[in-house]
Amino acid sequence: MKEVILLKCGEIALRGLNRSAFEQVLMKNARRALKDIGNFEIKSAQSTIYVQPKGSADMDEAMNRLKKVFGVAALCRTAQIAKDFEEIKQTAGDYLGANLRAAGTFKVEAKRSDKRFPMISPEICRELGGYLLSLYPHLKVDVHHPEETVVVEIRDFGAYIHGNQIPGAGGIPAGSAGIGGLLISGGIDSPVAGYMMARRGLEIFGIHFASPPYTSEHAHQKVVSLCQKLSLYTGRISLATVPFTHIQEEIGKRCPEEYFTLIMRRFMMEIASRLAVDNDCGALITGESLGQVASQTLQALACTDAAAALPVFRPVIGMDKEDIIEIARRIDTFETSILPYEDCCTVFTPKHPRTRPQLAMLLEAEKALDREALISEALCSVEFLGIEPSL
Predict the structure, then answer these.
(1) Is residue 302 pLDDT above 60, yes or no?
(2) Residues sharing a CB contact under 8 Å with residue 220, sequence separation 6 or more, in sequence order
(3) Whether the Cβ atoms of residue 207 and residue 240 lie closer than 8 Å to each other
(4) Whole-angstrom Cα distance, residue 15 to residue 320?
């Protein structure tokens, strides 16, 4: 008997003629996730990815990592055996014995993709179910809501026995849809936004604005930690840190206070756009939610978008804070995000920000600034950091 992990591809199976391209990215991401815990053979067949250890490997850790890989709808740890019903019976009773002893109800499911196998699916279920009841007489059959499901899959490479499937991360493989520049502040929302767009196939390029001495090294380290947590799902993240102090000070000295946040956001959008284009990004990603703060009203968002040279994706735009926090807790970024280190967006916050700005008024206010010189100065001092998954 060999143990194999089966990754069920879900949405990728609907991709038609370019399905294999998505499967190749998924297999690359799976290899990346497993690279330091053993040697695995990974191959694709019948809309399923097969992950087979070569020699010793930590299968529990492999399952834990693979369930974070986007593109995997579900996964299961299986016993691979010959396509012989006597061996199937024996293996099911032994391999799933602990699960069946702990369960009160069960059912058997059979999937026979190899039609050359002499028994049809209902016959497999009936015969195997009867055998397992003879081994574990405390069990009752419940075909609607069983505590344990015994699955037999008759596939090209052999017969596969497993219990309940584990839900995967879903979506499509990160990196299969291009690269997105994520404006990551260190708060709750932006890591969730990055996670959601990576789930739709984007590789993440992080862009962080720092304002020392108003923001501390602890604040920057918080962003690095958030990127490390995100990278468990997205793979390696390149983080660009933009020095923003001089720009904020100049805005504070030369522009009306009520426009400060909006002008600051417009500078961020233009700088992020230039960095993103230089790093092959096709879009920007932000964690803005409509109406959450004064700079996220409909009119304010239109004014900041006017400074962007790329499409701006806002995956949490229609979510309330509790929805966002729920995802942040699930992906383990929440506790890091709430560490008490200020980001540059909280520096020089106006007492009475304009919530319904007009672009013409902002452009007039910005005439007091040497916009191009400030942007060029910031771009010349950007620091880059490659962040690997913190496994």
Answers:
(1) yes
(2) 208, 210, 241
(3) yes
(4) 32
